[in-house]
Amino acid sequence: MSIDKFIQDGQDAKVAERIHDKIVDMLTAGEYIQYIALQKKPAVTLLPDSITISNKRIFLCEFTKLGLATNFEIFSWTDIKDIAFKEEIFGSKVTVIPFTGENLTIDYIPKVQARKLYQLIKTALENPSGNKTEEPTPVVPEQKPTEHFTLPVQPVVDEPATPPLAEENKDEELITEQSNISVVEDDELTQKLKKLKTLYDRQLITQSEYENKKSELLSQL
């Protein structure tokens, strides 16, 4: 992995690479290095102390025994109370203040690197959730509700069956004609019976003739 982004503020490339390789072996899932600050004393320092920060933790590294051993002080952001630094003639003194335990200080950090450390650590302390790597929530396309259309129901009206006009007229004519016939027939029969009764009352016909004729007329009904 290229360490070019970790040597942009005057860090020694070889030392930064060595520290980088050690820190990478200690990273957890989703953790990555953000910045490496290296101590720079007025005299030549082959193996300087350093401060490395990731998106989850802060690593204070000190080489001992001529570089054969390395001491690490590691804190998560929830363990850190504050960060402070003081600019001096030769670099800055950076102090990490944990909630418990003693403060840890590394001096002779170049001023540019000290300011960058302060900025990144302050940001992490003010917004610790912003340093967590989270998987983006998948965006589900909004589904439009299905529209249902209901056609108006027309009321069903039972209409009386209307017979054809011609047939209706025929039925009326037939009824009228039958009524006329009945009236005519009733009038003629009645007149004959009355006439027959008158003849009998005047004794123009005998009783047997009257009865016979009457029976004959009534048989026509």
CATH superfamily of the largest domain: Pleckstrin-homology domain (PH domain)/Phosphotyrosine-binding domain (PTB)
Helix-strand string:
HEEEEEEEHHH
CATH architectural name of the largest domain: Roll
Termini separation comes to 133 Å
**What's the number of helices?**
4
CATH topology of the largest domain: PH-domain like
**Largest sheet, strands/sense/barrel:** 4 strands, antiparallel
Task: Count up the domains.
Answer: 2
How are the strands of the largest sheet arranged? 1-2-3-4
Question: What's the mean pLDDT score?
Answer: 80
Q: What structural category do the secondary elements indicate?
A: alpha+beta
Number of strands: 7
Radius of gyration: 63 Å
Pfam families: bPH_3 (PF14470), SHOCT (PF09851)
Could you explain the architecture of this structure?
The chain is an alpha+beta fold. The chain has two domains: 4-131, PH-domain like, CATH 2.30.29; 167-218. It is built from four helices and seven strands. It has helices at 13-24, 111-126, 165-201, 207-218; strands at residues 33-38, 50-54, 57-64, 69-76, 80-87, 92-98, 104-109. The strands form two sheets. Strands 1-2-3-4 form a four-stranded antiparallel β-sheet, with helices on both faces. A hairpin with a 4-residue loop joins strand 5 and strand 6 (92-98). Helix 3 (165-201) runs antiparallel to helix 4. The radius of gyration is 63 Å and the shape is rod-shaped.
Name the descriptors.
single chain; 221 residues; alpha+beta; PH-domain like; 4-stranded antiparallel beta sheet; 7 strands; 22% strand; YokE-like_PH; SHOCT
